[in-house]
Amino acid sequence: MARSRLLPDNFTLTLVAVVATATLLPVSGDTAVVFGWVTNLAIALLFFLHGAKLSREAIVAGAGHWRLHLLVFSCTFILFPLLGLALKPLLSPMIGTELYLGMLYLCALPATVQSAIAFTSLARGNIPAAICSAAASSLFGIFLTPLLVALLMDVHGDGGSTLDAIGKITLQLLVPFIAGQIARRWIGAWVGRNKNWLKYVDQSSILLVVYTAFSEAVVGGLWQQVSWPTLAALVFACCLLLALALIATSLLGRWCGFDLEDRITILFCGSKKSLATGVPMAQVLFAGSSIGLMILPMMLFHQIQLMVCAVLAQRYARRPEATVPGPLTE
Protein backbone atom coordinates (compact mmCIF):
# COMPACT_ATOMS: atom_id res chain seq x y z
CA MET A 1 0.00 0.00 0.00
CA ALA A 2 1.44 3.38 -1.05
CA ARG A 3 2.24 5.83 1.69
CA SER A 4 0.21 9.04 1.73
CA ARG A 5 2.13 12.16 0.68
CA LEU A 6 0.49 13.94 3.61
CA LEU A 7 2.32 11.77 6.14
CA PRO A 8 5.76 12.86 7.37
CA ASP A 9 8.77 10.82 6.26
CA ASN A 10 10.43 8.31 8.58
CA PHE A 11 13.24 10.65 9.58
CA THR A 12 10.81 13.40 10.61
CA LEU A 13 8.75 10.91 12.63
CA THR A 14 11.95 9.69 14.28
CA LEU A 15 12.88 13.28 15.10
CA VAL A 16 9.51 13.85 16.79
CA ALA A 17 9.95 10.61 18.74
CA VAL A 18 13.40 11.73 19.90
CA VAL A 19 12.00 15.05 21.16
CA ALA A 20 9.21 13.22 23.01
CA THR A 21 11.71 10.80 24.52
CA ALA A 22 13.95 13.64 25.67
CA THR A 23 10.93 15.29 27.29
CA LEU A 24 9.82 12.16 29.13
CA LEU A 25 13.22 10.51 29.67
CA PRO A 26 15.91 13.19 29.57
CA VAL A 27 19.49 12.18 30.25
CA SER A 28 21.25 13.84 33.15
CA GLY A 29 24.35 13.52 35.30
CA ASP A 30 26.96 11.01 34.17
CA THR A 31 24.64 9.67 31.46
CA ALA A 32 24.35 13.12 29.93
CA VAL A 33 28.14 13.38 29.94
CA VAL A 34 28.37 10.07 28.07
CA PHE A 35 25.77 11.21 25.54
CA GLY A 36 27.67 14.44 25.08
CA TRP A 37 30.85 12.54 24.25
CA VAL A 38 28.98 10.22 21.87
CA THR A 39 27.44 13.23 20.13
CA ASN A 40 30.84 14.89 19.78
CA LEU A 41 32.31 11.70 18.34
CA ALA A 42 29.43 11.41 15.85
CA ILE A 43 29.97 15.00 14.75
CA ALA A 44 33.72 14.41 14.43
CA LEU A 45 33.00 11.31 12.31
CA LEU A 46 30.64 13.36 10.16
CA PHE A 47 33.35 15.94 9.42
CA PHE A 48 35.96 13.23 8.90
CA LEU A 49 33.77 11.62 6.23
CA HIS A 50 33.08 15.00 4.62
CA GLY A 51 36.81 15.59 4.49
CA ALA A 52 37.37 12.18 2.90
CA LYS A 53 34.52 12.69 0.42
CA LEU A 54 35.31 16.17 -0.87
CA SER A 55 38.13 16.80 -3.31
CA ARG A 56 40.56 19.63 -2.69
CA GLU A 57 39.32 21.28 -5.87
CA ALA A 58 35.75 21.29 -4.50
CA ILE A 59 36.91 22.76 -1.18
CA VAL A 60 38.85 25.54 -2.89
CA ALA A 61 35.80 26.30 -5.02
CA GLY A 62 33.61 26.37 -1.89
CA ALA A 63 35.97 28.66 0.01
CA GLY A 64 36.19 31.01 -2.95
CA HIS A 65 32.41 31.35 -3.29
CA TRP A 66 32.56 34.82 -1.75
CA ARG A 67 29.13 36.00 -2.95
CA LEU A 68 27.43 33.09 -1.19
CA HIS A 69 29.43 33.60 2.00
CA LEU A 70 28.70 37.33 2.01
CA LEU A 71 24.96 36.67 1.67
CA VAL A 72 24.97 34.05 4.46
CA PHE A 73 26.92 36.37 6.77
CA SER A 74 24.53 39.24 5.98
CA CYS A 75 21.53 37.05 6.80
CA THR A 76 23.11 35.82 10.04
CA PHE A 77 24.49 39.04 11.47
CA ILE A 78 22.39 41.77 9.79
CA LEU A 79 19.04 40.35 8.69
CA PHE A 80 18.30 38.52 11.95
CA PRO A 81 19.04 41.53 14.23
CA LEU A 82 16.91 43.76 11.98
CA LEU A 83 14.04 41.25 12.16
CA GLY A 84 14.37 41.13 15.95
CA LEU A 85 14.14 44.92 16.21
CA ALA A 86 11.30 45.15 13.71
CA LEU A 87 9.23 42.58 15.63
CA LYS A 88 9.55 44.39 18.99
CA PRO A 89 6.08 46.05 18.85
CA LEU A 90 4.53 42.60 18.44
CA LEU A 91 6.78 40.40 20.58
CA SER A 92 7.54 42.55 23.60
CA PRO A 93 3.90 42.82 24.79
CA MET A 94 3.27 39.19 23.85
CA ILE A 95 6.13 37.47 25.70
CA GLY A 96 7.42 40.14 28.09
CA THR A 97 10.59 42.19 28.23
CA GLU A 98 12.98 39.48 29.48
CA LEU A 99 11.98 36.91 26.90
CA TYR A 100 12.08 39.55 24.17
CA LEU A 101 15.67 40.32 25.18
CA GLY A 102 16.28 36.60 24.82
CA MET A 103 14.90 36.83 21.27
CA LEU A 104 17.33 39.67 20.54
CA TYR A 105 20.18 37.57 21.90
CA LEU A 106 19.05 34.73 19.64
CA CYS A 107 19.18 37.08 16.65
CA ALA A 108 22.78 38.03 17.46
CA LEU A 109 24.10 34.44 17.50
CA PRO A 110 26.18 32.84 14.72
CA ALA A 111 24.83 30.09 12.53
CA THR A 112 24.95 26.45 13.50
CA VAL A 113 27.76 24.36 12.07
CA GLN A 114 26.93 20.68 12.50
CA SER A 115 23.24 20.61 11.63
CA ALA A 116 23.51 23.23 8.86
CA ILE A 117 26.09 21.10 7.06
CA ALA A 118 24.23 17.87 7.77
CA PHE A 119 20.98 19.28 6.37
CA THR A 120 22.79 20.71 3.34
CA SER A 121 24.28 17.27 2.75
CA LEU A 122 20.90 15.53 3.06
CA ALA A 123 19.34 18.05 0.67
CA ARG A 124 22.19 17.65 -1.85
CA GLY A 125 23.27 21.28 -1.64
CA ASN A 126 26.71 22.83 -2.03
CA ILE A 127 28.47 21.03 0.82
CA PRO A 128 31.97 22.59 0.43
CA ALA A 129 30.47 26.08 0.56
CA ALA A 130 28.30 25.07 3.55
CA ILE A 131 31.33 23.82 5.49
CA CYS A 132 33.33 26.97 4.83
CA SER A 133 30.41 29.31 5.48
CA ALA A 134 29.10 27.65 8.65
CA ALA A 135 32.52 27.16 10.23
CA ALA A 136 33.54 30.75 9.45
CA SER A 137 30.23 32.03 10.86
CA SER A 138 30.87 30.20 14.11
CA LEU A 139 34.40 31.56 14.40
CA PHE A 140 33.53 35.15 13.50
CA GLY A 141 30.46 34.95 15.73
CA ILE A 142 32.72 34.65 18.76
CA PHE A 143 33.66 38.28 18.16
CA LEU A 144 30.57 39.62 16.36
CA THR A 145 27.92 38.28 18.75
CA PRO A 146 29.22 40.17 21.84
CA LEU A 147 29.41 43.31 19.70
CA LEU A 148 25.83 42.86 18.48
CA VAL A 149 24.64 42.16 22.03
CA ALA A 150 26.28 45.37 23.21
CA LEU A 151 24.61 47.32 20.40
CA LEU A 152 21.16 45.72 20.71
CA MET A 153 20.92 45.21 24.46
CA ASP A 154 23.65 47.36 26.06
CA VAL A 155 25.20 44.27 27.70
CA HIS A 156 28.94 43.67 27.99
CA GLY A 157 30.88 40.56 28.96
CA ASP A 158 34.49 39.82 29.75
CA GLY A 159 35.15 37.77 26.61
CA GLY A 160 37.17 35.28 28.62
CA SER A 161 35.92 32.21 26.78
CA THR A 162 36.99 33.31 23.29
CA LEU A 163 40.12 31.17 23.09
CA ASP A 164 38.30 28.16 24.56
CA ALA A 165 35.53 28.49 21.98
CA ILE A 166 38.04 28.73 19.12
CA GLY A 167 39.86 25.69 20.48
CA LYS A 168 36.66 23.64 20.70
CA ILE A 169 35.62 24.54 17.16
CA THR A 170 39.07 23.67 15.84
CA LEU A 171 39.27 20.37 17.71
CA GLN A 172 35.74 19.17 16.97
CA LEU A 173 35.33 20.30 13.37
CA LEU A 174 38.52 21.40 11.65
CA VAL A 175 40.85 18.65 12.89
CA PRO A 176 38.55 15.75 11.83
CA PHE A 177 37.95 17.43 8.46
CA ILE A 178 41.69 17.80 7.82
CA ALA A 179 42.21 14.18 8.96
CA GLY A 180 39.57 13.10 6.42
CA GLN A 181 41.35 15.06 3.71
CA ILE A 182 44.62 13.32 4.58
CA ALA A 183 42.90 9.91 4.59
CA ARG A 184 41.11 10.60 1.29
CA ARG A 185 43.90 9.01 -0.75
CA TRP A 186 43.20 5.69 0.99
CA ILE A 187 39.45 5.73 1.70
CA GLY A 188 38.07 8.34 -0.73
CA ALA A 189 36.95 5.76 -3.29
CA TRP A 190 35.25 3.63 -0.61
CA VAL A 191 33.39 6.65 0.75
CA GLY A 192 32.24 7.54 -2.77
CA ARG A 193 30.91 4.02 -3.38
CA ASN A 194 29.01 3.94 -0.08
CA LYS A 195 27.58 7.48 0.02
CA ASN A 196 23.99 6.16 -0.04
CA TRP A 197 24.19 4.50 3.38
CA LEU A 198 26.73 6.94 4.81
CA LYS A 199 23.94 9.55 4.77
CA TYR A 200 22.72 7.88 7.98
CA VAL A 201 25.77 9.34 9.72
CA ASP A 202 24.29 12.79 8.96
CA GLN A 203 20.89 11.75 10.28
CA SER A 204 22.31 10.11 13.40
CA SER A 205 24.34 13.19 14.29
CA ILE A 206 21.22 15.36 14.00
CA LEU A 207 19.19 13.01 16.21
CA LEU A 208 21.95 12.93 18.84
CA VAL A 209 22.22 16.72 18.88
CA VAL A 210 18.44 17.03 19.27
CA TYR A 211 18.24 14.50 22.10
CA THR A 212 21.17 15.82 24.13
CA ALA A 213 20.21 19.50 23.67
CA PHE A 214 16.54 18.96 24.48
CA SER A 215 17.39 16.75 27.46
CA GLU A 216 19.59 19.50 28.87
CA ALA A 217 16.77 22.01 28.40
CA VAL A 218 14.23 19.76 30.14
CA VAL A 219 16.55 18.99 33.05
CA GLY A 220 17.24 22.71 33.38
CA GLY A 221 13.56 23.36 34.06
CA LEU A 222 12.32 24.25 30.61
CA TRP A 223 8.68 23.60 31.51
CA GLN A 224 8.76 25.36 34.91
CA GLN A 225 10.28 28.74 34.03
CA VAL A 226 7.26 30.24 32.27
CA SER A 227 3.51 29.70 32.17
CA TRP A 228 1.98 27.61 29.41
CA PRO A 229 0.29 30.61 27.68
CA THR A 230 3.58 32.52 27.67
CA LEU A 231 5.41 29.43 26.41
CA ALA A 232 2.88 29.06 23.59
CA ALA A 233 3.39 32.73 22.68
CA LEU A 234 7.16 32.21 22.71
CA VAL A 235 6.84 29.19 20.43
CA PHE A 236 4.77 31.32 18.05
CA ALA A 237 7.42 34.06 18.18
CA CYS A 238 10.18 31.58 17.34
CA CYS A 239 8.12 30.09 14.50
CA LEU A 240 7.44 33.57 13.11
CA LEU A 241 11.12 34.53 13.24
CA LEU A 242 12.17 31.27 11.57
CA ALA A 243 9.49 31.59 8.87
CA LEU A 244 10.62 35.12 8.03
CA ALA A 245 14.26 34.02 7.93
CA LEU A 246 13.50 31.03 5.68
CA ILE A 247 11.45 33.14 3.28
CA ALA A 248 14.08 35.89 3.20
CA THR A 249 17.04 33.55 2.61
CA SER A 250 15.12 31.66 -0.07
CA LEU A 251 14.10 34.82 -1.92
CA LEU A 252 17.50 36.49 -1.57
CA GLY A 253 19.26 33.43 -2.96
CA ARG A 254 16.90 33.39 -5.90
CA TRP A 255 17.06 37.14 -6.57
CA CYS A 256 20.88 37.06 -6.49
CA GLY A 257 20.92 34.45 -9.25
CA PHE A 258 22.35 31.47 -7.35
CA ASP A 259 21.70 27.96 -8.65
CA LEU A 260 19.64 25.46 -6.67
CA GLU A 261 22.57 23.84 -4.80
CA ASP A 262 23.80 27.25 -3.66
CA ARG A 263 20.27 28.32 -2.67
CA ILE A 264 19.97 25.20 -0.52
CA THR A 265 23.23 26.14 1.23
CA ILE A 266 22.07 29.73 1.76
CA LEU A 267 18.74 28.47 3.13
CA PHE A 268 20.22 26.11 5.72
CA CYS A 269 23.26 28.20 6.68
CA GLY A 270 21.61 31.61 6.68
CA SER A 271 18.44 30.77 8.64
CA LYS A 272 19.86 28.84 11.60
CA LYS A 273 21.22 29.86 15.00
CA SER A 274 23.70 27.99 17.18
CA LEU A 275 22.68 26.62 20.57
CA ALA A 276 26.15 25.17 21.16
CA THR A 277 27.72 28.63 20.85
CA GLY A 278 24.87 30.51 22.49
CA VAL A 279 24.75 28.75 25.85
CA PRO A 280 28.39 29.19 26.96
CA MET A 281 28.47 32.72 25.54
CA ALA A 282 25.35 33.64 27.54
CA GLN A 283 27.10 32.58 30.74
CA VAL A 284 29.78 35.18 30.03
CA LEU A 285 27.60 37.98 28.67
CA PHE A 286 24.77 37.75 31.19
CA ALA A 287 26.56 36.97 34.44
CA GLY A 288 24.36 37.89 37.39
CA SER A 289 21.15 38.11 35.34
CA SER A 290 18.36 35.65 34.57
CA ILE A 291 20.27 33.37 32.20
CA GLY A 292 17.47 30.79 32.12
CA LEU A 293 14.92 33.16 30.60
CA MET A 294 17.58 34.68 28.35
CA ILE A 295 18.41 31.37 26.67
CA LEU A 296 14.87 29.89 26.62
CA PRO A 297 14.02 31.45 23.22
CA MET A 298 17.28 30.05 21.86
CA MET A 299 16.48 26.54 23.12
CA LEU A 300 13.01 26.55 21.61
CA PHE A 301 14.18 28.09 18.33
CA HIS A 302 16.90 25.47 18.11
CA GLN A 303 14.42 22.59 18.33
CA ILE A 304 11.98 24.23 15.92
CA GLN A 305 14.65 24.96 13.33
CA LEU A 306 15.92 21.37 13.46
CA MET A 307 12.46 19.90 12.91
CA VAL A 308 11.45 22.34 10.16
CA CYS A 309 14.78 22.06 8.35
CA ALA A 310 14.62 18.26 8.57
CA VAL A 311 11.34 18.35 6.64
CA LEU A 312 12.76 20.78 4.07
CA ALA A 313 15.94 18.74 3.64
CA GLN A 314 13.96 15.56 3.04
CA ARG A 315 11.81 17.32 0.44
CA TYR A 316 14.88 18.58 -1.39
CA ALA A 317 16.52 15.13 -1.16
CA ARG A 318 13.56 13.47 -2.91
CA ARG A 319 13.99 15.53 -6.08
CA PRO A 320 15.40 13.75 -9.15
CA GLU A 321 19.08 14.35 -9.79
CA ALA A 322 18.50 16.63 -12.79
CA THR A 323 15.53 18.55 -11.40
CA VAL A 324 16.04 22.27 -10.85
CA PRO A 325 12.96 23.46 -8.86
CA GLY A 326 12.77 23.16 -5.07
CA PRO A 327 9.96 23.64 -2.53
CA LEU A 328 10.97 27.17 -1.62
CA THR A 329 12.42 28.24 -4.92
CA GLU A 330 9.85 27.80 -7.67
From TrEMBL:
Pfam families: SBF_like (PF13593). It comes from the Bacteria. GO terms for cellular component: plasma membrane. The keyword Translocase does not apply. The chain crosses the membrane at residues 7-25, 31-49, 70-87, 99-119, 131-153, 165-183, 204-224, 230-252, 264-285. InterPro entries: Na+/solute_symporter_sf, Put_Na-Bile_cotransptr. Keywords: Membrane, Transmembrane, Transmembrane helix. This is Bile acid:sodium symporter. It comes from Phytopseudomonas dryadis. The lineage of its organism: Bacteria, Pseudomonadati, Pseudomonadota, Gammaproteobacteria, Pseudomonadales.
